[in-house]
Design a protein that fits this description.
Elements: H1 6-15, E1 38-40, E2 43-45, E3 51-52, H2 63-75, H3 77-80, H4 93-99, H5 102-111, E4 113-116, E5 121-124, H6 131-134, H7 137-149, H8 165-175
Antiparallel strand pairs: 1-2, 2-3, 4-5
Helix pairs in contact: 2-7, 4-7
InterPro entries: C-typ_cyt_methanol_metab-rel, Cyt_c-like_dom, Cyt_c-like_dom_sf
Domain Cytochrome c: 36-148
GO molecular function: electron transfer activity; heme binding; metal ion binding
Length: 177
């Protein structure tokens, strides 16, 4: 999907010497694919029931987004680069979280994907049996969505909500503790 502000962003990036232009300039927080419609047990969802992030005005991120930052950097950044920025080896997942349908994103992570052709040769391994990914897949997704939209910058979020008892119980159940 091509965003209409691509050329504008490129021009702004050239004009700004000390700062980086992010996808936030092209993505509205009112976008129904990002906007929080409801909260359930400390997790936030769009009106379509898709996990999303919640960042307070002071920059405090919700627990799932912070958890996603941690899990992404434990499992995904080796190929996809720090903060989902992409690498010469794998695409920028911060963009995939915005451009791909949530269910397609989950399918690729669970089952993997292989693209082989004259112009492209890439393999995404399947992570469907890795509890370090699967128990936190929605967290990873919301983190990438938050960073891809520009709601949070690069690096570890400075402030986070406390981890709720509900999240601790879900984590223990999923990890078999």
């Amino acid at each position: 999907m091509t965003r209409p502000f691509t050329l504008l962003l490129a021009a702004a990036a050239c004009a700004m010497s000390a700062s980086v232009v992010s996808a936030a300039d092209a993505v509205s927080m009112d976008d129904p694919n990002i906007a929080v419609d409801y909260e359930e047990g400390g997790r936030y969802f769009t009106e379509d029931g898709i996990p999303t992030f919640n960042v307070a005005e002071d920059g405090t991120v919700d627990w799932p987004t912070f958890s996603g930052f941690r899990r992404y950097h434990a499992e995904c950044h080796v190929c996809h680069g720090p903060d989902g920025e992409g690498s010469t080896y794998a695409p920028a997942l911060k963009d995939s979280a915005l451009d791909m349908d949530y269910y397609d994103f989950v399918d690729v992570v669970v089952n993997g994907r292989q693209k082989v052709g004259a112009a492209e040769n890439s393999v995404m391994p399947a992570f469907g049996t890795n509890p370090n990914v699967m128990c936190y897949l929605d967290d990873i997704y919301t983190y990438l969505k938050a960073h891809g939209s520009g709601a949070i910058g690069r690096g570890r979020p400075a402030q986070k909500e406390a981890k709720s008892e509900t999240f601790s119980e879900m984590e223990d159940a999923c990890m078999g503790s």
